Amino acid sequence: MPVLFRIAIRNLRQHSSKSLIIGIIMIVGVLILVVGNTLINTIDTGIERAFIDNYTGNVMITGATRADISLFGVRSPGGLEETPTIPDYDLIKEHIEQMPNVEAMTNQITGFGIINIEKADEDKGPYMGLLFGIEPEQYQELFRNAQIVEGQYLKPGDEGLIMSQTNVDMMNEIFEMEPAVGVGDKILITAPGSAGFKIREVEIVGIYKLKHESEAASYISYIDAQTLRVMKGMNLGNQGEVDLSEEETSLLSTDSFDAMFEVDAFSGEAELDFEMTEDNLFSILDLDSADDEEAVVDADEIFADDTADAEAVSAESSTWEYLLLKTDTNRAAARVITELNLWFAENGINARAQDWKAAAGPFSTTADVIRIVFNVAIILVAIVAIIIMTNTLVINVVERTAEIGTMRALGAHKGYIRSMVTTEIFTISVIFGFVGMLLGILVLYIIGWIGFEATNPFLEILFAGPVLKPVFSLFSVLGSWLIVIVIGMIANIYPLRLALKVQPIKAMMSE
Q1: What's the pLDDT score for residue 79?
Q2: Per-residue pLDDT tens for 110-146?
Q3: 140 φ, ψ to 5°?
Q4: How far is 162 from 129, CA to CA, in rounded Å?
Q5: In a domain, 249, yes or no
Q6: What single-letter DSSP state applies at residue 84?
Q7: What integer is the mean pLDDT of 506-511?
Q8: Averaged pLDDT, 20-41
Q9: Nearest to 99 by CA among 285, 269, 340
Q10: What is the pLDDT of residue 128?
């Protein structure tokens, strides 16, 4: 093998012009692949990190739908399908709490609202807003991207709205308010629901800025879940069955209102053989005496359980559209999704678990579209490169017909000729491919050093921030080098066949 490499190097030097043409093509090819794949991986990683850490988590659980569903609603053809609530929410939540790979979870409801200000001029506005109904403590524990700059964060059980500084600035620009709208002001939100449009007056309790800037995400406003439920007309009543005793059933079946208070509804006479005295009152309460200190009744104690239950229902309702989970590692997300969907099927629960890409909706498909376009472009470039390299190698073989024929006449077998020609193109691919790889890495370092800024919201989403910072991937770099070597081997197929067809006698006669 060392002999073949020495011969290959000698032949490449003797035909340096053609070797240089092939080498330049390979350098450019590797350079494009390294830079392109790295930038696409940067976009993928940036979008994934931005959404998982700040908006979607690793896993999204929703009610099952025929159409695709994301955090922004159901993507049905007509756009009219409502986002379903999560069925058997309490049962699902209890099951998730027992899963070892789930670190944290939170709930969410999504809505859209038309924002108006009552004291604004009629010809000003309105302003469209994206609303996330949340449970404040859980949401803030899972997603920490919003930093309050004025006012306060939502508190459990309180009604209110926190808006981004971008939202507030745009509102003030649209409504031309003097003084400017800020914390403590109330706005009118009109939102479509199951029973038509509903209007609610909501107070702005806080203004936030994003720790990691994102133009698109800054349009989100966070509202207490109960207010958003009311605006969307979501069912807040008891969805369970009510068990009644025979006495309660007979009471409800009584036709006469007066009969409810009669001892004997059939005799027509109301007989009350009972005297309301102090002793009788305390006997009803099963107390020995009104003077007994231990028998003193505290009204707060009597109604304590009901009050606690009411507060619990207000703070934690089972009516949610989304359950967002954070797994201990990103790799564990796929396993959690599979386990949950199997569990849903086994228990007959009409719910579905999906990954962050489904939750991000159209934003996640952006990187996929760019990757497809880039790969198509690379395929076209590769075809052109193969054609140019093949033609160059064919010319090289034709010029070396006498040389190859002489080698055959001296006893070189076809296998040796095949190894020699293949070694030459392999050597070119490895050397110039390595040079192209180094140049690609250098270009990426320059891009990172310059720090190209995102000039519009679309680029800011792609860059996962205001500045592009390439993320190196050893797999992408080495993969690009390998692809160019493979392209060189493909381009060598036809010239190699020509070289093997050279007849020694004819080659020597032509020379």
Answers
A1: 57
A2: 988 888 877 766 667 677 888 999 999 889 888 887 8
A3: -70, -30
A4: 12
A5: no
A6: P
A7: 58
A8: 85
A9: 340
A10: 81
Do residues 170 and 102 both lie within one domain?
A: yes
Residue 170 lies in domain: 59-235+317-362
Residues 44, 193, single domain; the answer is: no
Residues 354 and 489 in one domain: no
User: 353 has which bridge partners?
Assistant: 61
Q: Give, in order, the Cα–Cα distances in Å from 57 to each of 184, 219, 307, 489.
A: 31, 19, 34, 44
Is beta strand 127-134 parallel, antiparallel or unpaired with respect to 102-116? antiparallel
Specify if 375 maps to a domain.
yes
Residue 192, classed as helix, strand or coil, is strand
Whose tokens are 């800011």? That residue is: 460
Tokens representing 224? 């207490």
Confidence of residue 312 (pLDDT cuts 50, 70, 90): very low
29 pLDDT above the threshold of 50: yes
Query: Is the Cβ–Cβ distance between 134 and 158 less than 8 Å?
Result: no
Map 83-138 to HEC letters.
CCCCCCHHHHHHHHHCCCCEEEEEEEEEEEEEEECCCCCCCCCCEEEEEEEECHHH
d(CA 6, CA 21): 21
- Of 334, 362, 390, which residue sits at a domain end? 362
- Bridge partners (DSSP) listed for residue 128: 114
- The pLDDT tens digits for 246-260 are 655 554 555 544 544
Rounded CA gap, 306 and 326, in Å?
A: 34
Is the distance from CB of 53 to CB of 324 less than 8 angstroms? no
* 173 shares its domain with 224: yes
- With respect to residue 195, please indicate whether it lies within any of the assigned structural domains: yes
How far from each other are the two terminal CA atoms of the chain, in whole angstroms? 29
Computed over every residue of the chain, the mean pLDDT equals 77
Record the tokens describing residue 330, joined without a space: 């990103």
Is residue 229 domain-shared with residue 328, that is, in the same domain? Answer: yes
Share of the chain above pLDDT 90, in %: 18
62 pLDDT band (50/70/90 cuts)?
very high
Cα gap 333→354, rounded to integer Å: 9
Measuring CA to CA, which residue among 205, 153, 164, 154 is closest to residue 183?
Answer: 205
Distance CA 390, CA 383 (A): 10
